[in-house]
Amino acid sequence: MRAANALFLVSAALFVTGVGLVIAGARERGKAQPVATTAAVAITPVASVKQIMAGITMPAANEVWSAVSTIVDAEGIHETVPRTDDEWAAVGSSAAALVESANLLMVEGRAVDNGDWTKFAKQLFDTSTRALKGAENKNTQEILAAGEVINESCDNCHARYMRN
Ligand code: HEC
Questions:
Q1: Is 24 close to ligand 1, i.e. is its CB under 6 Å away?
Q2: How many other CB atoms are found less than 10 A from the CB of residue 22?
Q3: Is 112 buried (19+), middle (13-18) or exposed (0-12) by CB count in 10 A?
Q4: Whose CA is nearest to atom 43 of ligand 1?
């Protein structure tokens, strides 16, 4: 009887230890999982909207707008279009910077609201994505057309949110 009791106690103790180890293992996995499966890192907005406009949005938009253009002056008509792979890649990079500046405007902590602000930022995102695809396809007409609607997205947001 005693021996049986003692055996029972030992096996009960082993069982409890085993359960403990399983729980500890599960906890460890629980801790490790978010790091392993979640790519998102908390982003802290640092730049003001004004700095993003002046440092990223405006320079990038200027590159897209001037990539395909016709200038008429006293010396005649000057057509500008990207010609080499490098020139097309540069247009694509500027369009990509413009897309990302739209993302920066929508980041939590910087987005002014979830209504019109986000709508206009999304408009900038969509129109500059169109320019990016145009650059990838080396399509001058698309760059021109995208340039127009990009401009509308800037104007829409400024009309509603710019104070000066
Ligand atoms: C979602 C809203 C939004 C969109 C879209 C937007 N802007 Fe702005 N922009 C603002 C606001 C708000 C300001 C005023 C910031 C301030 O003065 O604090 C501003 C200011 C500016 C300024 C003045 C910066 C300075 O140094 O005073 C420029 C230049 C500018 N935007 C260019 C653009 C261009 C070009 C586009 C489109 C390609 C664009 N913005 C799209 C919201 C937007």
A1: no
A2: 10
A3: middle
A4: 157
| Model pLDDT for residues 102-113, shown as the tens digit of each residue | 999 999 999 999
Q: How far is the CA of 46 from the centre of ligand 1 (A)?
A: 16
Report the amino acid identity of residue 95: A
Residue 133, Cβ neighbours under 10 Å: how many?
15
Among 106, 124, 149, 154, say which to mutate for ligand 1: greatest number of ligand atoms within 8 Å of CB.
154
**Residue 90 and residue 82 in contact, taking contact as beta carbons nearer than 8 Å:** yes
**Mean pLDDT score, 33-54:** 81
Q: Would you say the CB of residue 124 lies under 6 angstroms from ligand 1? A: yes
The fraction of the chain above a pLDDT of 70, given in percent, is 76
